[in-house]
Amino acid sequence: MMNYSALKDWHNSHKESALIGRYITLHNIQPLIDKLSGLFSVAVLGYSVENRPISKITFGTGPINILGWSQMHGNESTTTKALFDLFHWFDSNKEESAVNRLLTEFTFTMVPMLNPDGAEAYTRINANKVDLNRDAQDCTQPESLILKELYTSLKPDYCLNLHGQRTIFGVGKPPKSAIVSFLSPSQDALRTVTHSRKKGMAIISDLNEMLQEFIPDSVGRYDDGFNINCVGDTLQHKNIPTILFEAGHFPGDYDRETTRVFMFLSLIRVFESVLLLKSEETPSSNSYFSIPENKKCFFDYIIRNIDLPEIGVTDMAIQFEEKLVGDQLNFIPKIAQIAELVDFIGHLEIDLASEKPRVPADFSFEIGNIIEEIQVNGKLPTTFSVKSNNIL
Ligand SMILES: [Zn+2]
Known about the structure:
- Keywords: Carboxypeptidase, Hydrolase, Protease.
- With 392 residues, the protein is an alpha/beta fold.
- It has two domains: 4-295, Aminopeptidase (3-Layer(aba) Sandwich), CATH 3.40.630.10; 297-387, Roll (Urease, subunit C, domain 1), CATH 2.30.40.
- It has nine helices and 19 strands.
- The chain has an eight-stranded mixed β-sheet, sandwiched between helices. Strands 15-12-13-14-19 form a five-stranded mixed β-sheet, with no helix packed on it. Strands 7-6-11 form a three-stranded antiparallel β-sheet, with no helix packed on it.
- α1 crosses α9 and α3 crosses α9.
- The longest helix has 22 residues, at 257-278.
- The structure holds zinc ion.
- Zinc ion binds next to loops.
């Protein structure tokens, strides 16, 4: 196995600096695709609803076919950044024997942005307002057809379904933020642990082991309820081991620049794990189910013991709404809950110790209201809103 601390250091100084922050569009990645070296071949697979090109990037000469795609949900860009870091890493280190081995064992096909219209608009859905990850059977959308045609012709040995998850997910007891989560999807309603599913589980167990060194107790396992309309479930149903990546929230890192490195490390580890699996008759997947399941138990902020007019002393949760304003992604703090939040944790918590907040006379503490800052007597105001970097 490679030295993952050294890989993390490499990433720190060599990550693709043209891609920073959460709002990543085709404008950002196209120049990088255009200047990829001769190690890579690029082809346009087709066009999105709004006629943006969807490209695949192929490299390596080996017999094991790996297919990955990112930004199927347009606002989930962390794994796209990690893919370009991966391209850069392969290109910079291709002479090294361990890297060269990957290039001769595998042929990689990566679609870095399956939903470029959603990326532009910063939405999960495509331009026809369809969730592409619920369109795997009907394939009503051009983006879904492009992916289907690709996996049908390529017949991949493994698939990587690359996503991002919201800040609300935690793992373990007491819960920590689910910085990354994985799933080896079910391929039937009984969630049978088939041979193909077991391969995915073995790889995820291995990913978890590697990541525990860096982010202990912060790796989650996604719910494995079967839905044939999801792409991962469809592929697993065809006995193609598929791994769902979910890039989550590292505390304080709303740009997901820290999570990005763990996605990069995980991609490389998948390839190493697949090579290990090659030599095993029966993949061992024992530790997969010991990875704690994700649960929705976090808010961006929780204000404890706030004394509200007409309500009295209670807790208040604030959750960011991510909103694109021009080319800038803003995180709008909105009141999400007003209740005793004993089973929830804030990524940041403030205890007002029953003090009455000073607010404008016309402000009402209601769910959905924007709350930019809060102040109590004798203390500096706490400001909630943050902005993501953007590079345009
Ligand atoms: Zn997603």
